[in-house]
Every structure is written in C-alpha cells, then in structure tokens.
C-alpha cells in the first residue's frame, strides 16, 4: 500500500538586512585589518646622526638586558634622569675631571633615554611618529611624559654647568638663562606647528636615511645638544658650551621658522 507523501514544512530563510559583502569589499576590509594589526615602524631618518649612530648601537643589548630583568620604560626613564642629575653634579664642580665625568654620564643618560623609548614602543607597538630622540608612544595615565623628563634633564645640566663656571669666578647665568629661554621657544613653536599639520601630512621624502638624519641634526635635536654639551664641556668650558648652544640654536630656529612660513604661504 502506497504511503502518502510527507507534507513539506515551510522553510524560513534568515536573510540579513545588510547587503552581501562582495569579494573586492572583503579583500579591502581584510587589508585594513591587517594594516591595523601590523605594528607601524618609524620612518628612517626621523632621528639625528647622534641618536642613530652613536646612541643607537648601544640601545639593543641594554634594552634586552632591561627587558630580561623586568625593567619598565618608566623605570629606565628614571635611571636616565638620575644619570643626568649626576652629570649636572659633576659639572657643578668646575674641575676638568668633573667635566669629563659629567660628559660620560650625560652620554649614558642619552642612551638610557633611547632605551626607555624602545621599551615603551615594544610595550605598545601600535604607535608611530618621531620625537626628541624619535617616536615617543603615548604616556599612560599617571606617568610623566618623556619630553618633560628630557627638559628636566637638560635644564639640570645647564644649571650644573653654570654653577661650575660661577665657582671659578665667571658669570654664566645670563647665557644659561638665554639657552633655557631659546629652548622653550623652540619647543613651543615646534609643538604649535605640529598641531597645525595633523590634517595634512607632507609627502614622504625620497632622500636617503643618512641625508635625512643629517638634515635633522642641523636642527639641533636632543641627541645633538647632549653631544655638543659633552664635547664642549669636556674639552673647553661652559662658556663655550652656552655660546655654541645660543648661536646654533638661534640659527636652527630662524631656519625652521623661515621654512615653515614659506610652506604655510605656498599654495
């Protein structure tokens, strides 16, 4: 006896409201996801020659040693600050041995500052962009900004050099004050200009990395200032240090302002 055919049940299809993603759209979305997941590398030439070729070779082994012992970027920043303060103390003596020792301590502070920046980028790889030694990541809440620590280190060194010269009978406080004021003006202008360029980025330069770093060095960034202070203090005195800082810093500021004014008024 033949059985009656089973009654077919109605099938409900859940059709999404959104249109289906086509293959080109899916590939574009995956490309964006891959770009977001990939750590951004700092552009070559974002540092000066001193930070790249004098402090840079010492950074990887020290960074590995610090990471292996659980030292954070903030801890290394504090050690770098301590080295700079010790350099200022040695500079304040005014003796030749103290000036040479202070120069070596200041170089160590520069290297440790670069190590701190590298550890911070390793902890937060989704950051990019240059800074004083190049590419500072955002500062976590409750932490001091690395640029603020760099200014504290530099001002402490200025004070130590001025105190050492004053102890030997000189009067370097006016040049030291002028160097501090010039540095403050430079950073204020640079910060204002950087804020105005967030909406429009310049095209990448095709020059070589060494040429870009040399051009960066002419602007007297932190690494070059520390190298200048160390060399002039170790082989001469604080008077020459402040004279070169004022002359070179003024020329670099004037050239930077002229270039920025030209770019701002150009169509």
Structural class: mainly alpha
State mean pLDDT (0 to 100 scale). Answer: 76
Task: Name the CATH architecture.
Answer: Up-down Bundle
Report the CATH C-level class.
Mainly Alpha
- Terminal Cα span: 92 Å
**Subunit arrangement of the protein:** single chain
In CATH, the topology is named Four Helix Bundle (Hemerythrin (Met), subunit A)
Sheet with the most strands, sense and barrel status: none
Query: How many domains make up the coordinates?
Result: 1
CATH superfamily: CDP-alcohol phosphotransferase transmembrane (TM) domain
Q: Choose one word for the global shape.
A: globular
Protein described:
The protein is mostly helical and about 270 residues long. The chain has a single domain (about 45-195, about 205-265), classed as Up-down Bundle (Four Helix Bundle (Hemerythrin (Met), subunit A)). The protein is about 65% helix and about 0% strand. The protein contains 10 helices and no strands. The chain has helices spanning about 25-35, 50-55, 60-70, 75-95, 95-125, 145-165, 175-195, 210-220, 220-235, 240-265. Helix 4 (about 75-95) runs parallel beside helix 6, helix 6 (about 145-165) runs antiparallel to helix 7 and helix 9 (about 220-235) runs antiparallel to helix 10. The longest helix has 28 residues, at about 95-125. It is globular. About 30% of the residues are buried.
Provide a short characterization of the protein structure.
The protein is mainly α.
């Amino acid at each position: 006896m033949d059985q009656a055919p089973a009654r077919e049940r109605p099938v409900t299809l859940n059709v999404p409201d959104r249109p289906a993603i086509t293959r080109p759209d899916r590939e574009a979305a995956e490309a964006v996801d891959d770009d977001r997941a990939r750590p951004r590398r700092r552009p070559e030439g974002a540092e000066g020659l001193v930070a790249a070729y004098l402090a840079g070779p010492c950074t990887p082994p020290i960074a590995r040693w610090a990471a292996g012992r659980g030292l954070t970027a903030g801890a290394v920043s504090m050690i770098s600050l301590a080295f700079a303060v010790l350099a200022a103390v040695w500079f304040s003596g005014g003796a030749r041995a103290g000036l040479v020792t202070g120069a070596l301590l200041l170089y160590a502070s520069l290297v440790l500052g670069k190590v701190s920046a590298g550890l911070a980028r390793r902890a937060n790889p989704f950051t990019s962009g240059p800074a004083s030694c190049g590419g500072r990541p955002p500062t976590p809440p409750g932490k001091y900004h690395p640029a603020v620590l760099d200014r504290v280190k530099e001002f402490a060194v200025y004070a130590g050099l001025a105190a050492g010269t004053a102890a030997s009978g000189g009067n370097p406080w006016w040049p030291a004050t002028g160097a501090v004021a010039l540095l403050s003006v430079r950073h204020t202008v640079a910060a204002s200009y950087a804020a105005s360029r967030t909406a429009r980025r310049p095209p990448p330069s095709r020059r070589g990395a060494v040429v870009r770093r040399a051009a960066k060095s002419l602007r007297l960034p932190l690494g070059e200032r520390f190298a200048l202070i160390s060399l002039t203090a170790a082989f001469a005195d604080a008077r020459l240090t402040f004279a070169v800082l004022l002359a070179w810093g003024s020329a670099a500021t004037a050239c930077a302002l002229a270039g920025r004014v030209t770019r701002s008024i150009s169509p």
